[in-house]
Amino acid sequence: MQVFQYPSQTQWAALQQRAAAQEAQEIEQRVQAIFQDVRQRGDAALRDYAQQFDGVQLQDLRVTPEEITAAVAQVPAELQTAIRQAHANIWKFHATQRTEEKPVETMPGVTCWRRSVPVQRVGLYIPGGTAPLFSTLLMLGVPARLAACPEVVLTTPPQKDGSVNAVILFTAQLLGISTIIKAGGAQAIAALTGGTDSVPAVDKIFGPGNRYVTAAKQLATRHGVAIDMPAGPSEVLVIADETANPAFVAADLLSQAEHGPDSQVILVSDSMAVIEQTQAEIERQLASLPRAAVATQALTESRAILLRTPEDMLYFSNQYAPEHLILAVRNPEQLAEGVTSAGSVFLGHYTPEAAGDYASGTNHTLPTNGYARNYSGVSLDSFLKKITYQRITAEGLLNVGPVVETMAEAEGLSAHARAVTLRLEAVARTLE
């Protein structure tokens, strides 16, 4: 990690920069071509891309019930138990996010309320590759089920033998998801956007992915399909004071660095000793890390920054707006009160970010690349639409009608005023 000692605030913006996306224009052009191809050739295009990118010839793009049954039998009992416990914790936390429908009488005879309606068709994209993210399927599938979305479609890349990762299929069965498509990459997003013979078109797409998937999701929004949020590489910022355990801090930094070579980890401390000891711990722990090469590459774009006060450290973090924020400090609750921009916050020395990734209950699908300034992570609300209703009685119209007439006429919208005036006149006739 690069170390910066007491940088002035004029230097902070440069230190808060994420790695610039390379070849963005080329990626977008390639994704646009994939969208057009999938729109024109449908399933045939998906099978061709499976052979090209995944090295497998597929006859049927849909996972069969027999494949799911066979996969479940392959998952070790210990892992099944762990996934079930994580599922229970995530369900319990997200269930508290349900809100009651509460009618409000804003004036006598004027009643307004809001009702939550599930997004009717949602698509969940789960990457495969070297790290099949069954944990992300839990994070997306649980709130989708709590929201009672009528149609949930899962897309995930096939393995070399044409199967889908067994743990992903076990998790899908646990969630009650039966529409599972063997498709990955931008082509899966294209299929969810426009639909094919095998893939239902959806209203909203959720899930992480590489730069091609991210570009595809952004392109989907131009075709009237919503997405969970703008996404980028994983990131964590750790605020550590002299009470922090350097071994814990190093492990937290490496847990994000191992996600991918473009991940970014930031250590902010008011103790040079903690920074130095954490650096040494990173080197020591890297030696036994299976994904050491990936983590090492990520560390080249990562930084350790020495600042003078807790206030400075918190101000730096709020400007950076990290996906994950760990407060490894003496009084984490006190410092947490000042957090204004972060995807998810982890308080104290015994709260690793990895717990949130898997099983504590909060959602790990979070805004990255500074979007925590204006986006929230995935929640139950992500799978719901909020529709407002109102009912006005004759008494209510007498109360609110003149207000509407005055405002509409002031804006020069006479038809708006007339829609009220005609009704007021009708009410007046009934009172004669």
Automatic annotation (TrEMBL):
Cited PROSITE patterns: HISOL_DEHYDROGENASE
GO annotation terms (biological process): L-histidine biosynthetic process
Function: Catalyzes the sequential NAD-dependent oxidations of L-histidinol to L-histidinaldehyde and then to L-histidine.
Cofactor: binding comment: Binds 1 zinc ion per subunit.
Organism: Hymenobacter fodinae
Protein name as catalogued: Histidinol dehydrogenase
Binding site for NAD(+): 125, 187, 210
InterPro entries tied to this protein: Ald_DH/histidinol_DH, Histidinol_DH_CS, Histidinol_DH_monofunct, Hstdl_DH
